[in-house]
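As a warm-up, study this chain.
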Amino acid sequence: MASILITGASRGIGLATSLSLGRAGHQVFATMRNPDQSTALGSSAEAESLPVTIAAMDVDSDTSVRDVIGGIVAEHGPLDALVNNAGIERRGAVEELALAEFRAVMETNYFGAIRCMQAVLPGMRNRGSGCIVNVTSVAGRISSSPLGPYAASKFALEAISEAAAQEVKPFGIRVAIVQPGIIDTDMARAITTESDASIYPQNRRMAGLFTASLATPTGPDLVATTIREIIEGHSDQLRYPVGPDAQPFLDWRAAMTDEQWIDWWATDDDSWYAAVQQDFGLDARKGN
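Now compare it with the structure written out below.
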C-alpha cells in the first residue's frame, strides 16, 4: 500500500479522494488549511477506522509546506504519491476583477502545487519511484469568461505538469493531470450564483450553464476513483478528462478555430443560449 499526501482535502474532490484511497488501504495524509472547520473527513475516517491522518497545511506558505511535509516524512517515512488538489475559484471580467484576486488564485492553484512538488520530488527521485497527480480542470485547456482568472491558473498548472513529467520520467516518477468537467462541489455550486453586477453578459451565461449542468449532477467520487486508479496503476498517460461532459467540452473547443470560439462567446444572448441547447441539450437560460 502507498503513502499518499493530498492537498485541499476538506471537501469536494479532496475529501472524496482521501476516503477512496483510505478505503483501499493506503496510508493517507489529508491536508487542509483549517481542519477544525472541516470535520467531515475526520468523522468519516474515524467511523470507518481508515488509515487517514489529517494535518493543517497552507499551500500558499513556503514554511507550512516545508514543515508539514518534512514532518510527515520524518515521522512516517517517504511519500509514494502526491495529489495536488487544493484550489480556489475566482471569476470576473479582466476589466472588473481586482488584481489581488488574480494573484490569490495563482498563489494557491499554481504556486501551491509547485511548492508541494518541490517538497516531495527529491525523495521520490532518490528512491527512483513516485507518482504526482495534479488536479486541473477542463478549464486548464479551455478559457471562457468569466472564469479567465481560474482558467489562467489551471493553464499554468497544466504547462508546468507537462514540463515536470519530462524531467522526472527518467527517475521513475510519473506525473498525471486530472481534468474534471463540471463536478458537483461547493466550488461549482458557487458559480451558479452570479457574482457582483457586471456589464459583461458572460457572467450570467456561465451561471446558467453551471446551474443547468448541475441539475443532473456528477459527484466527486468519480474523480476520486480516477485518481486512485492512476496511483495504483503504472500508466504513463498524462491527461485524464473526468466526467460525462469533460471530453465533450474539450472536443467542442477543438472543433472551433480560435476566432470562432471568441465570436461564439461574444455573440448575443439568444444565439449563445441556442447553441448550448443544441450542442449539449442544456437550457442555460432556464438556469438563470
